[in-house]
Amino acid sequence: MRSPALKPARERVLDAAHHLMSTVGLARTTTKEIAREAGCSEAALYKHFASKEELFISVLAERLPQLAPLLHGLAAEPGRHTLAENLTEIARQAALFYEQSFPIAASLYAETQLRRRHDDAMREVGKGPHLPIEGLAAYLRAEQAAGRVSADADPFAAASLLIGACAQRAFAYDAAPGGRPPVDDFARRLVRTLLSGISAADDRT
């Protein structure tokens, strides 16, 4: 395994940004601190990333669990595995993503101007928190066309419920007795409950 000192500068910067954003929050992380932890100059950092906003997007895309490839693959090939298996894996990956991204992004909501800059940056590159819901809804529509989701189900509403629950797990349970529900058990229970309302009768396993 390559030691940190031998990693390319871009990887060191991403590692440092991920660590600092996760521990002190996005708002309090500066490019100067990231460069110092990465062992490079700010000028070197800016050779790879145009702004802190771009760094944040890159951390989300390259250092956290990814939903988009999973959702796109399933939507392109509905019927692969059971509906329950697919949705459980989606829920598991979504729960892990929000668990890891919430400490980074939470400080955005405390500073309006910072949130606005990051929203603008996300729109410019075609990213945003709405995309997992839209991706899951597309997958559910594909399964609906294949007959594995009830014809009268609302894919967008179902996707919003599943993704919203995964995001809420990251936000709501730190102060709860027992802490955050274990991700695998949480995903299974969430999907079992959701499927009781949207699954075709013969595909609830």
UniProtKB/TrEMBL annotation:
<dbReference type="InterPro" id="IPR009057">
    <property type="entry name" value="Homeodomain-like_sf"/>
</dbReference>
<feature type="DNA-binding region" description="H-T-H motif">
    <location>
        <begin position="30"/>
        <end position="49"/>
    </location>
</feature>
<dbReference type="InterPro" id="IPR001647">
    <property type="entry name" value="HTH_TetR"/>
</dbReference>
<protein>
    <submittedName>
        <fullName>TetR/AcrR family transcriptional regulator</fullName>
    </submittedName>
</protein>
<dbReference type="InterPro" id="IPR050109">
    <property type="entry name" value="HTH-type_TetR-like_transc_reg"/>
</dbReference>
<keyword id="KW-0238">DNA-binding</keyword>
<keyword id="KW-0805">Transcription regulation</keyword>
<feature type="domain" description="HTH tetR-type">
    <location>
        <begin position="7"/>
        <end position="67"/>
    </location>
</feature>
<dbReference type="InterPro" id="IPR036271">
    <property type="entry name" value="Tet_transcr_reg_TetR-rel_C_sf"/>
</dbReference>
<keyword id="KW-0804">Transcription</keyword>
<dbReference type="Pfam" id="PF00440">
    <property type="entry name" value="TetR_N"/>
</dbReference>
